[in-house]
């Protein structure tokens, strides 16, 4: 291969810029040309490419978001759309691409590879950490730090007013963020998609916490928690059944995706970019790079997409013990 393209696709996450920088510089290091694709697969279809050199990616390692912009592309889901993307890549004489994104982006790359035999490599970029084949996705560590900081601030106001806060954090399918920030910020309870605590046990636990002399309580709720109520319904339920607390809700939302990447994410992004480009050079294709036992690893796209990322159940027990 001589020319490699890099794109960011799906939801953005902190560390994507650091990964773009790494892909570009690894290409330059190995004497390959590198092209940035703007706006994900949609920009690929439209041939929105820009040649990048080592200096094109200066000053971005510490920036959140993605300088290449991200997008969702309905057209890329169609055969005609992917044909257009292939034609645009061939016209620019690009012969491989690295996509930084989530499982949808990997599915797109896999289908593209099957259709055209085009070499592709993936870097997992999402704050949810919901991808099989890596212990950490890019942006996850930064999001944990952002959320813990936010909950610390909520705790300050909660304890000044004897309040109970339900704090909703991202995580529709997996509870990684909720579980870790719950332990990290000392939450009284953590509600995650993997486990149904049950409303009775929740009330019991909140009463116990109040009786033990606590002046505030924070319950971290993942978007997809299994208890089956959203944060506002939970507030109503607790209001109805408990008079001990004044209950408030805070939905953290998109701020969880922003901000300057943590050192961990910058280092991870740098390592993943090197691994992705060097794997393409050795003739590998259709893999996602990932971190396992602090070693860079490759997982075939089909496994990365199909597999389920599992939470660490030990953390639930740790949380229970810490809230005694
Ligand atoms: P996030 O998890 O942050 O949302 P993602 O990569 O999973 O990221 P998606 O919106 O699911 O985000 O996918 C990104 C893009 O990948 C889609 O807009 C589409 O262009 C492409 N894509 C997803 N699934 C397919 C598919 N089955 N076939 C072809 N292209 C796909």
Automatic annotation (TrEMBL):
* Membrane-spanning intervals of the chain: none
- Look up the record and name the cofactor or cofactors this protein needs: Mg(2+)
Q: Where does this protein have coiled-coil stretches? A: none
Q: Which residues form the active site?
A: 128 (proton acceptor)
**Residues that bind substrate, according to the entry?**
126-128, 163, 170-172, 223, 248, 254-257
Q: Where in the cell is it found?
A: Cytoplasm
Q: Its family?
A: Belongs to the phosphofructokinase type A (PFKA) family. ATP-dependent PFK group I subfamily. Prokaryotic clade 'B1' sub-subfamily.
Name recorded for this polypeptide: ATP-dependent 6-phosphofructokinase
Organism this protein belongs to = Winogradskyella poriferorum
